[in-house]
Design brief:
By secondary structure, this protein is of the alpha/beta class. The protein has a single domain, classed as Rossmann fold (3-Layer(aba) Sandwich). The protein contains 4 helices and 4 strands. Strands 2-1-3-4 form a 4-stranded parallel β-sheet, sandwiched between helices. Helix 2 crosses helix 3.
């Protein structure tokens, strides 16, 4: 299968105050229903050791053309995922990241949809 595009939502451990105005499941469902990507995933904290292992496994077993990640600062995401990307042979330029901290559910959905549409 070519042109696989995936979306991962990282929720900062699930207890971060910056997510208090957001219903994560509604965000995931809106992105899934919008059919803008081939798969939708959720991870509690990708920047942890098990999160990096998850990325290595995912990216090493799939031919993903674009990986959209909603979480913290996009620059930080590139730095935090660097080793996992290298281990999986994943080109870091295929990561399209968005910072969703302190957004409402509606703001997150809108921002993520716009990000995906503008970075096909």
């Amino acid at each position: 299968m070519a042109n696989i595009r995936g979306f991962i939502f990282c929720v900062f451990g699930g207890t971060c105050p910056s997510c208090k105005e957001m219903d994560v499941l509604k965000v995931l469902d809106a992105i899934r229903q919008g059919k803008l990507v081939d798969f939708v995933e959720y991870h509690p904290q990708i920047c942890t050791e098990d999160g990096n292992q998850y990325l290595k496994d995912l990216l090493g077993n799939m031919s993903i053309d674009k990986l959209y990640v909603a979480g913290c600062d996009p620059l930080m995401q590139k730095k935090m995922f660097r080793d996992a990307f290298k281990a999986a042979g994943f080109d870091k330029s295929k990561l399209i990241a968005i910072d969703v901290r302190s957004l409402t559910t509606e703001q997150a959905i809108s921002g993520i949809k716009e990000l995906i549409k503008n970075n096909p």
